[in-house]
Specification:
- A hairpin with a 2-residue loop joins strand 2 and strand 3.
- This protein has helices at 6-9, 33-39, 42-62, 82-103, 126-141, 154-157, 174-177; strands at residues 18-31, 66-71, 74-79, 106-119, 122-124, 148-152.
- Strands 1, 2, 3, 4, 5 and 6 form a six-stranded mixed β-sheet that branches.
- Helix 3 (42-62) runs antiparallel to helix 4 (82-103).
- It contains seven helices and six strands; from the N terminus they run H-E-H-H-E-E-H-E-E-H-E-H-H.
- With 179 residues, the chain is α+β, with helices and mostly antiparallel strands.
- The radius of gyration is 16 Å and the shape is globular.
Length: 179
């Protein structure tokens, strides 16, 4: 789990809104989590949530990511550069396969480059909204609960300097979607 969760939720600002600029924003949403908790007991749900949290925490530590918020089964992460974000997400996808096999839960991930505002525990801004909407697209394309879906906005993808291989990522064929 979290080493020190108070760092995520601590309300230490006295006043004012901070703006965090030019970060790679990622939302990671467990696809099929509602079905998991409705069909299983709390022991299985708790085990899943701990594995999910540990995986995200480990990957963020290894790839200089920051967990900004957790809301239900969705993590809000940031990275300082595109290659860190890609490497972290690739590792998440590759490590998710065992979770997917065990729990039949997939993940939807949206990544966008942008800025956002922080006030106490609130985060907001246009780029947050864009990233959430990208993540939501996963529900359209990853209709099978066990699928892994990742989408990068153009602003995030344009900054990637490492090669994207097909072990974790596959280009979305838009002609199959919009003939």
């Amino acid at each position: 789990g979290f080493g020190e969760p108070e760092k995520v939720y601590k309300l230490d600002q006295k006043s004012g809104i901070r703006v965090l600029n030019n970060l790679y924003i990622a939302f990671v949403d467990a696809n099929g989590f509602s079905n998991l908790y409705m069909a299983n007991g709390t022991d299985i749900v708790e085990k899943f949530l701990l594995e999910y949290e540990d995986l995200i925490s480990d990957i963020c530590k290894k790839h200089n990511g920051t967990i900004r918020q957790v809301n239900g089964d969705m993590f809000f992460l940031t990275f300082e550069n595109a290659d860190q974000a890609v490497t972290a997400i690739k590792m998440l996808c590759l490590n998710w396969k065992s979770i997917r096999e065990h729990y039949k839960v997939g993940i939807k991930i949206g990544v966008h480059k942008g800025s956002f505002h922080v006030f106490h525990s609130y985060v907001f801004g246009e780029d947050i909204n864009i990233t959430v909407r990208l993540t939501d697209l996963g529900g359209l394309f990853a209709s099978d609960r066990g699928q892994i879906f990742v989408i990068f906005s153009g602003s995030a993808k344009n900054d990637i300097t490492i090669e994207l291989d097909n072990t974790a990522f596959q280009e979305l064929d838009t002609e199959k979607i919009y003939p």
